[in-house]
């Protein structure tokens, strides 16, 4: 099934980004922008151990994300997220998501030996990754100090509370990071998993604190026909007007929620509304209307935000933006790798147009939802991790998603994972940001 870029771009939205020069000039004249900050049980089994690397039913590889390569990789690296500034939260003139990766001589709080909750494909140290420099950086906002995650303080704050991370395998990756940090104070006890270990729940008994990961890659009801290697036998069937009951049935019992989605929408799919086929994304062999993944993503996000705002839920809700991958010299299916060992500088990587579309949809729908959420007293927050994550191509497992991949053959051909994050690794800094946002309410 050959991908037609002409067909793809028929539904691609035209991008509109503020010029970097404008952002620089604004900084030089010293103006400070006031960001428009948006307001922001349990029953569930395993996300597959493979990365979110998937094949469609076609013999040709699916649409994927490309990044530009650059070789300059030196000390503190920075990002200016001047575009979309109006949607990024701010605390007292401090934009938590605009900052620098700075050296952190202390290194990670945990290791693969001290935390036994790391799944094998993200356990880069155990799998033989030879370099360790990627472990010695931390995220630092430009206008304020960001304290390191305090596990004991967090657990005290979350006494008698319930958290859930709802989304795809990046949510699973994130929950492992959080659990590893918290387990330095008290071991997390798994109290539930579904049959496939895709959704799981842990409890910290001394604090009566529960944290779950809920597998819902589309956030909406979907029939997915993939095996554990991501090989599809049929198109995904996605119900655009029906949210996934896996999480909606539990929602009212959750005190804190982190929603995320995105990349799964790029897959080939048939779209339904009112139990009737509405159209599809990339299905040239079917006589269906090509609607585009941005159409579907926008519909689902709107439905999700409408549900959140009308639910009378009193907890805190985060919407995490989609995060980049960092394949270079190809994609996962064509020999793409991520071999960098330090953060990159601003401008070395550009987002692929498909990811830009996902991001634009997210920010546009969040901005609209934030207005209604504020009016109705719903605590809705944007967790915008795209830009800070873009600067960390060194933080992925790469070939070390496999156990000592080059032990028998130094030239072995192995699939790289340049999407998920090593544990420990850059993803641990996400928890610093979350704790600061919780404390700043």
From TrEMBL:
Q: Where is the Trichome birefringence-like N-terminal domain?
A: 92-145
Keyword Transmembrane appears in the UniProt entry: yes
**Location in or out of the cell:** Membrane
What parts of the sequence cross the membrane? Answer: none
Signal sequence: where?
none
Which GO molecular function entries does the Swiss-Prot or TrEMBL record give?
A: O-acetyltransferase activity
Q: How does it sit in the membrane?
A: Single-pass membrane protein
Stretches for region Disordered: 48-87
User: GO cellular-component terms in the record?
Assistant: Golgi apparatus; membrane
Q: Which domain of life is it from?
A: Eukaryota
Q: What is its main location?
A: membrane
Q: Which UniProt keywords apply?
A: Membrane, Signal-anchor, Transmembrane, Transmembrane helix
- The Trichome birefringence-like C-terminal domain is annotated at 146-437
What InterPro entries does the database record attribute to this sequence?
TBL, TBL_C, TBL_N
The record's family statement is: Belongs to the PC-esterase family. TBL subfamily.
Query: Any idea what this protein is called?
Result: Protein trichome birefringence-like
Species in which this protein is naturally found: Actinidia chinensis var. chinensis (Chinese soft-hair kiwi)
